[in-house]
TrEMBL record:
One of its GO terms (molecular function) is oxidoreductase activity. This is Uncharacterized conserved protein, DUF2236 family. Residues 52-264 form the ER-bound oxygenase mpaB/mpaB'/Rubber oxygenase catalytic domain. InterPro entries: MPAB/Lcp_cat_dom.
């Protein structure tokens, strides 16, 4: 007989998985983790540890907040992604892309990359100030990649299930780069130091557009989740804010003080991530086939 605590644990795990992976979570899991064949990464690779951990939830929120600061990236999201009309669908597609390119078979991962590239070719327009953009622009793709990679890595270093050495942090950056380059970015960073330099090189281009402000409010104030789940979500969001660069927080009007990080953001981020990790462990995940490349 399942005890009440285990029942709660499974309920949380299954609810989160259905939101992130969709109603066909078992089918997707079988395709990603259960299909035999060569993979880019093995279960002992740093990227498998980071991208498979519950710290990705705070990391994902941080990445979204950071990406809003580039007006061209923000215009593309606002005009073409359907994040407001179908936020869970967008989350599921993003989660599937990360999971497939990290854990899936090489052939399946390559096919998904090509589909995303085809979509990018159709995404173009103008920012709120009339500046033209296209989603296939290598410079714009680099910004999206850098913001995501930095956010995922920093979230794991603060909230992950184990510590990363500086060498492992560099290894993660290097392992994340090839997929970004397959999407069309050029000469992506291979070390954390280069990643941070690349991110800071975009500072002259960053600003808070009206679309960015609207998106940040949507992410932090009106997330598309039930009220009962919002306290847990806001704990993850507090963790996400605490790992953002101070300059990004200032631009977005978010807390920047050390006391917020020490007493609010980092503790809440750690606690909520630990709870999610505990809950998600109750949801069966198939083992990753060993890398054969």
């Amino acid at each position: 007989m399942i005890n009440p605590l285990e029942r709660v644990r499974r309920a949380i795990g299954e609810t989160v998985r259905s939101r992130v992976a969709g109603g066909d979570a078992e089918v997707r899991a079988e395709r990603i983790w259960g299909s035999p064949g060569p993979r880019w990464h093995g279960p002992d690779d740093v990227i498998a540890h980071v991208n498979g951990d519950a710290s990705m939830y705070s990391g994902g929120i941080a990445a979204l907040l950071l990406q809003t600061l580039h007006p061209a990236a923000m215009a593309g999201v606002a005009g073409h992604s359907g994040y407001r009309s179908d936020p869970w669908g967008r989350l599921q597609r993003t989660a599937e892309f990360i999971a497939m390119t990290t854990f899936g078979r090489i052939d399946d991962a390559k096919s998904l990359v090509e589909r995303v590239k085809e979509i990018h070719l159709r995404v173009r327009g103008k920012t709120d100030q009339g500046e033209p953009y296209r989603a296939s622009d290598p410079h714009l793709l680099e910004w999206v990649h850098v913001a995501e990679t930095w956010s995922f890595l920093l979230s794991f270093r603060h909230f992950g299930f184990r510590r990363l050495t500086d060498g492992e942090a560099d290894e993660y950056v290097a392992q994340a780069a090839p997929v970004g380059e397959m999407l069309g970015a050029e000469e992506l960073p291979r070390t954390l130091a280069d990643l941070e330099r690349a991110m800071e090189s975009y500072l002259p281009e960053l600003r808070v557009s009206p679309a960015a402000r609207d998106t940040v409010d949507f992410i932090l104030k009106s997330p598309p989740i039930p009220w009962l789940a919002r306290p847990g979500y806001w704990m993850l969001a507090a963790g996400a804010i605490s790992i953002l660069p101070v300059w990004a927080r200032r631009m977005l009007g978010l807390p920047t003080s050390a006391w917020f990080d020490r007493l609010v953001g980092l503790p809440l981020g750690k606690l909520s991530t630990n709870v999610l990790r505990w809950a998600m462990a109750s949801v069966r995940r198939r083992p990753v086939h060993p890398r054969t490349t």
